[in-house]
Amino acid sequence: MVERTDGPIPMTERLSLVARAASYNQTFPSYPMTMYDKGWLYGVWYCGTSWQKARLYGQYPGNYLKRVLSLFPDVPHDRLLQPCAGTVQGPGVTLDCSPVFSPQVLASVTDMPFNNGSFDLVVIDPPYSKADAQHYGVPLFSQRKGMAEIRRVLSVGGFMVWLDTKYPSYRRSEWNLVGLIGVITGFQRATRCCSIWERQ
Known about the structure:
globular, Rossmann fold, 200 residues
C-alpha cells in the first residue's frame, strides 16, 4: 500500500455546495452560471476543442478539468486522485493501468495501492465502451468494482466527479448524487455527463 501521512479535510472546513457553485461562477464569470438548487449542482458547460491540440483519443475536453477543480478550491492537490489519467500530468496523483501514459502510479482503478480514505476528491474520465477501451489498449473495467474501489480510497464526505456519456448506477447508502452537468464540445459531437457524487 502507498502510505499517505496527510489527513482528510475536516468536515467543518469543507465547502457547501452553494459555495462550490459560487467558486465556479467567480472563476468563470464569462460563462453561463453553474447553479445550486434543492441539494443539486447543475448546468451546461460548453468546453470547445477548436484550439486544442489532441494528444489522446477521448482526452478531457477544452478547459473541463479547470472547471471541475474550480468547484473544489478547498481540496489540496495531494488529496486529489485522477485514475484513468491517460496523458494528464496533474494536478494531484495520476493513475493508469497503461505504462504508455507514464502515470505516477501504474495500477487498475479496480485495485489501487492506496490506504482507505487517502483522498478527498477523485476525478475520473474512464473508457465509455469496449471500443473506447480498445483505442487505449486497456481492458474495460467494471463500473461497479471501480466505484467500490474509488469509494474505499475516498474520505467520508469526499467527492467523485465522473465524466461519461451516462452516469453510473449506484447505491444511495454509499453515494449521494449531488450534481449533473452537461458537457458539450461542439456541433455534431456527443454530449457527455459530468456527475458529481459525495461519498457516504
